[in-house]
Amino acid sequence: MRxxxxxxxxxxxxxxxxxxxxxxxxxxxxxVYLLKAGIANYLVFFTIAAVILLRLALRRVLLPIVRRIGLxxxxxxxxLIDASSFLLLGQVHGPGAWLLVYMLLSSCGxxxxxxxxxxxxxxxxxxxxxxxxxxxxEAIFAITGIIAPLFGGFMLTLFGPVYAFASTALIYALAAVxxxxxxxMVVERxxxxxxxxxxxxxxxxxxxxxxAAAVNFGWRIVLFQTLGESFKDYGGxxxxxxxAGAVVGLVGGRLIDLxxxxxxVQIGLAFMICTILAETIGYASPWSAIAANMIGAVAxxxxxxAIMAPLYNVGQSSACAFRFNVVAENGFDCxxxxxxxxxxxxxxxxxGYSWLLMMGLFGCLGVHLVLRNKDRNGLRVAx
Length: 383
Prior knowledge:
By secondary structure, this protein is mostly helical. The chain has a single domain, classed as Up-down Bundle (Growth Hormone, Chain: A), CATH 1.20.1250.20. The chain has 14 helices and no strands. It has helices at about 5-35, 40-60, 60-70, 70-90, 95-125, 130-160, 160-175, 195-225, 230-245, 250-255, 260-280, 285-315, 320-350, 355-370. The radius of gyration is 19 Å and the shape is globular. It starts with 6 loop residues before the first helix and ends in an 11-residue tail after the last helix. The model has no long low-confidence stretch (mean pLDDT about 85).
């Protein structure tokens, strides 16, 4: 495929492979580990909300720092800060100082990392191959999702959290190495985003944040509890789902590049809605929960390719890719943070998990409305 001719994107692929291995082998266990550490489920949701919403404040200091050091160095810095947070996570054995310091480092690292990462993809990607490039990343994420959860579950079961999360930190830190040779990517000193670009970025990301609060953060906790809070069984369920996701990892993006963006969005949203309904109905039984998790793994790559390709293309044509992604990340954090906060309240009040999972449907509706209205705003979102 011609999009492999882009050497800068290839570096991002290698970086993403290492980062996603660390994520699927460590980060997906982070919040379920807090349950095993003796923290109540509703407090875990409040912890997730606090980490996400704190990023809104921390991101305000991003612009002057990244403008001085460049996007590449901002991405490397975020990678190393986020990696260091896992060294602290293994020390958490309940509410206390270790948990607070972990939350602060995790929030700071992810605020830097994801903003600079998405801005880098926006700047370095090719519009004509955007869908394929995004779906290739999703395929890489799905492939590491087969092996890494087994590794993470094995490490936690046999060696405990200190060594398990230390190995996550090491792999995560190594993910910074491929980016050392990437372009520095200077951030524009003065740039003003159009109102339409801000509304599109914030609205799409906010809606996706609601989806993430349900099918990512919420569902992982629900699945872990359904599987008896076993790291081994949880890792195995994620690995099986990763195999299913890897099979369809390149499909969604190719539909976009062939001019079928609208169809790919419809397919991605349909799969995501089916995932939410399957999780809502099947979470109480281990076998039905595993089946729902596999549906989610198939839906994820198609859904993400359908929404991220237009987001990146609008960002590339905007006045400043970095500022555009700051708006998008703030929107995501508002949606995901609100969703996690609502999940904590619902769980504390004794409502069943079905209620917090169904929140994802509102996110799907929001994604549909924002992308449906994109042409009305005159935004270039796909080739």
